[in-house]
Specification:
The protein is mainly alpha-helical. Helices cover 72% and strands 0% of the residues. It is built from seven helices and no strands. Helix 2 packs across helix 5 and helix 2 packs antiparallel against helix 6.
Length: 127
């Protein structure tokens, strides 16, 4: 799941304004993280991902294609892993809002559990 925290809102029956603000917080997480990334690597990944995808599909989805392995070395991973990492970093930005919106006792269990699971999987990411 690329959106482990945002997705927990649906399981808790949360919609409307809370869901919308959570999505905005996630998108601002992308902005914040982009400012912290190695700019040259970030740009290189964005340039090479379309090339990777083209080779991937033209090679019959052969992940062992040597050209793909070479691109993965340059990019620091494959496009799926890069995208998931970017999405998971952005999710960290939703936690301060969710904690403000749902003080400890009022936070639905699904959201509370998702935050705990995220913290275990990605220690130190939540601002």
């Amino acid at each position: 799941m690329s959106y482990p925290l945002s997705s927990s809102l649906q399981g808790a029956g949360i919609s409307g304004t809370v869901l919308a603000v959570t999505k905005f917080a996630h998108e601002f997480g992308h902005v914040n993280r982009t400012g912290q990334e190695n700019a040259a690597l970030f740009q290189l990944q964005n340039q090479l991902i379309p090339q990777y995808n083209s080779i991937f599909f033209s090679s019959g989805r052969n992940v062992n294609e040597p050209r793909l392995k070479a691109l993965e070395q340059q990019m620091g991973g494959n496009p799926i892993d890069i995208n998931i990492a970017r999405e998971h970093w952005a999710e960290a930005n939703t936690v301060p809002y969710l904690r403000d919106r749902f003080p400890a006792k009022s936070m639905p269990n699904q959201i509370k559990q998702a935050i705990q699971d995220y913290q275990k999987a990605y220690p130190g990411r939540i601002p």
